[in-house]
Amino acid sequence: MKKLLIPAMLAVALGAAFAADNGSLDKKDREFIEKAAAGGLEEVEAGKLGESKAQNADVKAFASMLSTDHSAANQELQALAQKKGVTVPSTLPKKEQKKVDKLAKAKDFDKNFIHEQGIEDHKHDIKDFQKEAKDGKDPDVKAFAEKSLPVLQKHLARAEEISKEMKGKKG
Questions:
Q1: Which of 127, 133, 134, 137 could serve as 146's disulfide partner, Cβ 3.0–4.6 Å?
Q2: Distance separating alpha carbons of residues 140 and 135, to the nearest angstrom
């Protein structure tokens, strides 16, 4: 009987500790995790699309970098979300899927990919991650945002370089 009681008590204690952590996460921190997870999945899918569809070698390499870097960040964020009791999508949500689908149909794929995924999305993401790093309440969530910023900034800088190179070749 004692052998069964100790694991049961431990499970109840762990459950209570988890529930306490789950309830203590600030609403804005929770929303950041959810939004970052959906955006990260979009970046991976768009990156895969870019790897297969881009004509420009630099755009293909950039797409591969997005897919690789965001896959790693997504795994880290998934673990953080689980630790904090936040449910995040495991597949691309409809809103983000529509963006990827629209990109897939773009007339000048390479130009649109660099502009939309590389520049516009990353400018927006950097703002969100800077805000979380500055104003977030949970130290683990803030640390994730801070750690992610240099990678997002690297992506933006590379996308801007590729965009300038592509414009230079046309005119």
A1: 133
A2: 13
